[in-house]
Design brief:
Elements (H helix, E strand, L loop, with lengths): L3 H6 L12 H29 L7 H10 L31
Protein backbone atom coordinates (compact mmCIF):
# COMPACT_ATOMS: atom_id res chain seq x y z
CA UNK A 1 0.00 0.00 0.00
CA UNK A 2 1.26 3.50 -0.93
CA UNK A 3 1.79 5.99 1.79
CA UNK A 4 1.09 9.69 1.46
CA UNK A 5 4.82 10.44 1.22
CA UNK A 6 5.27 7.99 -1.67
CA UNK A 7 2.34 9.50 -3.59
CA UNK A 8 3.71 13.01 -3.13
CA UNK A 9 7.23 11.90 -4.08
CA UNK A 10 6.21 10.61 -7.49
CA UNK A 11 7.50 12.71 -10.37
CA UNK A 12 4.54 13.48 -12.64
CA UNK A 13 5.77 16.77 -14.04
CA UNK A 14 6.85 15.58 -17.49
CA UNK A 15 10.59 16.06 -17.08
CA UNK A 16 11.38 12.34 -16.92
CA UNK A 17 11.90 12.11 -20.70
CA UNK A 18 15.48 11.51 -21.82
CA UNK A 19 17.14 13.76 -24.38
CA UNK A 20 15.23 16.91 -23.37
CA UNK A 21 16.39 20.23 -24.83
CA UNK A 22 14.94 22.64 -22.27
CA UNK A 23 18.25 23.17 -20.43
CA UNK A 24 20.51 23.71 -23.46
CA UNK A 25 17.91 25.81 -25.27
CA UNK A 26 17.44 28.01 -22.21
CA UNK A 27 21.20 28.51 -21.94
CA UNK A 28 21.39 29.38 -25.64
CA UNK A 29 18.62 31.99 -25.30
CA UNK A 30 20.25 33.53 -22.23
CA UNK A 31 23.59 33.79 -24.07
CA UNK A 32 21.94 35.36 -27.14
CA UNK A 33 20.07 37.91 -25.01
CA UNK A 34 23.26 38.71 -23.09
CA UNK A 35 25.22 39.26 -26.31
CA UNK A 36 22.46 41.45 -27.73
CA UNK A 37 22.43 43.53 -24.54
CA UNK A 38 26.21 44.02 -24.64
CA UNK A 39 26.09 45.09 -28.31
CA UNK A 40 23.24 47.53 -27.66
CA UNK A 41 25.07 49.09 -24.72
CA UNK A 42 28.26 49.51 -26.80
CA UNK A 43 26.27 51.08 -29.65
CA UNK A 44 24.51 53.57 -27.37
CA UNK A 45 27.78 54.50 -25.65
CA UNK A 46 29.41 55.27 -28.98
CA UNK A 47 26.41 57.40 -29.99
CA UNK A 48 26.51 59.29 -26.69
CA UNK A 49 30.22 60.03 -27.14
CA UNK A 50 29.48 61.69 -30.50
CA UNK A 51 26.99 64.14 -28.98
CA UNK A 52 28.20 67.64 -28.19
CA UNK A 53 29.00 68.48 -24.60
CA UNK A 54 26.32 71.15 -24.51
CA UNK A 55 23.33 71.89 -26.66
CA UNK A 56 22.41 75.49 -27.50
CA UNK A 57 19.82 76.89 -25.16
CA UNK A 58 16.61 78.53 -26.29
CA UNK A 59 18.12 81.96 -25.59
CA UNK A 60 21.03 81.23 -27.92
CA UNK A 61 18.66 80.01 -30.64
CA UNK A 62 16.58 83.18 -30.34
CA UNK A 63 19.62 85.47 -30.47
CA UNK A 64 20.93 83.57 -33.49
CA UNK A 65 17.56 83.99 -35.23
CA UNK A 66 17.47 87.68 -34.32
CA UNK A 67 20.89 88.22 -35.82
CA UNK A 68 19.61 86.68 -39.06
CA UNK A 69 16.58 88.99 -39.00
CA UNK A 70 14.03 86.24 -38.41
CA UNK A 71 12.03 85.01 -35.49
CA UNK A 72 12.13 81.47 -34.18
CA UNK A 73 9.47 79.42 -35.93
CA UNK A 74 9.27 81.84 -38.86
CA UNK A 75 7.23 80.28 -41.67
CA UNK A 76 9.90 81.32 -44.18
CA UNK A 77 12.11 78.61 -42.69
CA UNK A 78 9.92 75.96 -44.28
CA UNK A 79 9.48 75.28 -47.97
CA UNK A 80 5.83 75.72 -48.86
CA UNK A 81 4.39 74.96 -52.26
CA UNK A 82 2.25 77.70 -53.77
CA UNK A 83 -0.63 75.49 -54.88
CA UNK A 84 -0.80 72.43 -52.68
CA UNK A 85 -4.55 72.02 -53.32
CA UNK A 86 -3.84 70.84 -56.87
CA UNK A 87 -2.06 67.74 -55.61
CA UNK A 88 -4.05 64.56 -55.49
CA UNK A 89 -3.82 62.22 -52.51
CA UNK A 90 -1.40 59.95 -54.37
CA UNK A 91 1.11 62.78 -54.87
CA UNK A 92 0.57 63.48 -58.61
CA UNK A 93 -0.70 66.78 -59.86
CA UNK A 94 -4.11 66.78 -61.38
CA UNK A 95 -4.76 68.53 -64.64
CA UNK A 96 -7.13 71.47 -64.46
CA UNK A 97 -9.15 72.76 -67.37
CA UNK A 98 -10.46 76.20 -67.24
Amino acid sequence: MLTVAQVLAQNNFGDTRTGGLAGPMGLFLILVLGAATVLLIRNMNSRLRRLPDRFPTEDAAESEADSAGRTVGDPTDEIVTADSSADSPNGHQQRRDG
